Fold this sequence. Notes:
Number of strands: 8
CATH topology of the largest domain: de novo design (two linked rop proteins)
CATH architecture of the largest domain: Up-down Bundle
Structural class: alpha+beta
Number of helices: 7
Strand order of the largest sheet: 1-2-3-5-4
Amino acid sequence: MPTYRDEIVVLRTHKLGEADRIVTMLSRRHGKLRAVAKGVRRTSSRFGARLEPFMVADVQLYQGRSLDIVQQAESLGSYGADIAVHYDRYTAAHAMVEAADRLNEAEATPQQYLLLVGGLRALSRGEHAARSVLDSYLLRAMALSGWAPGLSECARCGRAGPHDTFVAQQGGLVCGDCAPTGAARIDPATVSLLQSLMAGEWDAVDAATPRSTAAASGLIAAYAQWHLERGIRSLSHVSGAPQEGVR
């Protein structure tokens, strides 16, 4: 059986037997991978610490019948330690890797890999508020998967904005004619923040008010969980997890 190399970010791990782990990874070139890392739970393991959640590594794998086997792992980004000591970063990172794990195999592209690595790097450095890094990641990951929310034109009929009603089930902002009764209405500052989070305009994101940040976070969480097959359970643990904002 052949061996191959790839860059990966570890999404989650499961114990296997007394000393092994099954590692679920998002790779740069091969999509999502599940592989056995033998002996990594022993204190003498050469690369166990490099295969923990949030770690980025260059790995060599042996192609097995059902699960591949990790043969080597060299660290490319040791983000786990800096993330784990901050509760807000840790919970945001868990929500990010859980969302990445929800991707279908066809959606696990190099762009998704690079987006996740960039998000984890930003969290580890504390460059921006952890919740904002998570929100920006979710919006961009959804867009890369073909579910970009409508944030300018009406997501249903295409009418030019601005619009002030957000409906996750209809794909984002919708006009007054398309909005169902009781739909959440949001103020222009929150609309602008959603657009900045999507575009990665961090000066505008960092300057947003707590009210707009909370409202945007709630809308993004509702949108992401609507379009993914299952909800993102880790979102309930994110520090200051907001509810969907209504004006």
